[in-house]
Amino acid sequence: MKIFSIHFKIALTIVAFFFFYSCRKDHTIVVSPYNAETKLLFGTKDPLYFDSLMYTTANGTHYMITDLQYFISRVKFHHVNGSWQDVKTNKGLHYVDGRSWFSPFWNLYLDTFFGTVDSISFVFGLDAADNISYRFPDPPLRDMFWPEILGGGYHYMKMNLKWKGDTMQEPLPFMFHIGIGQTYKGDSVVPDSITGYVQNYFTLRFPLKIEFPDTGFTYIVIQMDIGKWFDSENVFNFSDYPNGMMQNQEAMNKACLNGRNAFSVTATHSVLRGGKRIKN
Description:
By secondary structure, the protein is mainly beta. It has one domain (3-279). The chain has helices at 8-26, 228-231, 249-259, and strands at 3-4, 36-44, 48-49, 55-56, 62-79, 84-86, 93-97, 105-108, 116-124, 157-164, 172-178, 181-184, 194-198, 202-211, 216-224, 263-273, 276-279. Strands 4, 5, 6, 7, 9, 10, 11 and 14 form an 8-stranded antiparallel sheet that branches. The chain has a 5-stranded mixed sheet with strand order 8-2-15-16-17, with helices on one face. Strand 10 (157-164) and strand 11 form a beta hairpin. Mean pLDDT is 84; it is low at 6-35 and 273-278.
């Protein structure tokens, strides 16, 4: 059993350890302009215990999570004057794997530092411009590929799970996978009957008051509430989709409507005074 969670109260401790460890390993410290640094941290609202049938949806279905992988892209900091700055680090996208210790951390090296930010936005998944087939030649990003016949590009999210109803003897696997959807001719869902494709990525924006100073460390925590993927706008019934989601646009649309409520963002800032890091 493995736990994936980054709580805002302990985020600074985790980052401090990670920052120290990475500096010792590489013997170098990359410093942003004006000696400032911004980190994005990804985690879950509550501890995520992999491979444990301990979670329950609103309709009483028990489930466990076996894998969680997803993309966040097109991160923007929005200024109070209406302008914004795109994050260009790693070409503006980040891959998170719940079973990887390192993937929840993203150092942002911004071109210039600015004053007051009032919100942050990002794309869940990859938009049409970013979602290009064969873009990632190496694992693990390569392994997020979405079948070419189903629209190509990459999964926005792979959440593999097992679910069990009260009358079931054993749990059944379910691939809660989101990517490009399809429309089909008639009732057939075979690839030869595909008539078009549907972009299922979505953009979220959150109020976030940040004053970027000349020096300091800003930590922004993006948390996912796993349960809201199944229970927020509508109750997701795994039994309704025995063949999974990848060829079922109705299922992916329901998942994305729920997913819009699954994220939250918080931030904190610290500055260096007399060689010590002081939290604001």
